[in-house]
Specification:
By secondary structure, the chain is α/β, with parallel strands linked by helices. The chain contains seven helices and ten strands. It has one domain: Spore Coat Polysaccharide Biosynthesis Protein SpsA, Chain A (Alpha-Beta Complex). The longest helix is centred in the middle third of the chain and has 13 residues.
Length: 260
């Protein structure tokens, strides 16, 4: 997803420095997609370092103390996500699942709306995470939350920026939830964010992985190679992955096998 460039004079460097008491920020993970470009497998359930991608994402989120809660939006292969999070050992606690009934026809916006509707009572802002983006940096999450907490007035949208490009996760102030829920079928979240360009803060981050997600078998092959060559598999104690380069830096063979 590509985001409109917000006001270049409104950046993380310009937010207020006197932080209010920490408000609640809920994580919403989108894991409902059909994975059509993956040619079969649900992207969020593909194995990476011995675990499904969705489990890596949620494990990393629940270790970010600045997040008050974690909600996962399911759709395609709902039961598989449930198994990955709650049936594998150990089961993950303090994670809520909510099902998007319109996942097949509703596109990504319907999952965003499902997640915001379910999380609105548990957060003053919501961070939207992609269910196929396991390499995000926890410090990036903290940087976005700090920028939102310290801004006066608080902005509608916080976007991470790496070398001039917007990526994920994004932070949405709860003040805009009703407006997002009112977006019609066929609209996108960009229809909302484009209305609030002047209430958007860009947060420069040294994290190339905000631009990465896994859409195709080739992307997945890069992710596996990234994990082996540039990553460090974190253990149960929660050591964080280092993310020095984007997945696109991993070169593929001309005809690479797709890992099963």
């Amino acid at each position: 997803m590509r985001w409109r460039q917000s006001n270049p004079r409104t950046t993380c460097d310009s937010v207020a420095t006197d932080a209010a008491p920490p408000p609640r920020v809920a994580a919403v993970v989108l894991a409902a997609g059909m994975s059509r470009r993956m040619l079969g497998p649900a992207k969020c359930l593909l194995p990476l370092g011995g675990k499904p991608i969705i489990r890596h994402i949620v494990e990393r989120l629940i270790r970010v103390s600045e997040l008050s809660s974690c909600l996962v939006v399911t759709g395609h292969n709902r039961s598989g996500v449930n198994v990955a999070l709650f049936c594998d050992d150990p089961p993950l606690l303090n994670v809520q699942l909510v099902h998007n009934r319109d996942y097949e026809a509703g596109e990504m916006l319907s999952s965003v709306q499902t997640g915001l509707r379910a999380a609105r009572d548990s957060g003053d802002a919501m961070m939207i995470f992609l269910g196929d983006q396991p390499t995000f940096g926890p410090e990036t999450v903290r940087a976005l939350i700090r920028a939102w907490c310290n801004a006066t007035p608080r902005p509608r949208v916080i976007l991470p920026v790496y070398r001039g490009k917007h990526g994920h996760p994004i932070l949405l102030d709860a003040a805009g939830i009703d407006e997002i829920l009112a977006l019609p079928a066929g609209a996108t979240l960009k229809d909302y964010t484009s209305r609030y360009v002047r209430q958007t803060i860009d947060v420069p981050v040294n994290d190339a992985t905000i631009l990465d997600d896994i859409d195709t078998p080739q992307d997945y092959d890069r992710a596996v190679r990234w994990w082996r060559e540039l990553g460090k598999i974190h253990d149960a104690a929660g050591a964080e992955l280092q993310t020095p380069a984007p997945l696109s830096s991993i070169k593929l063979q001309e005809h690479p096998p797709c890992p099963s």
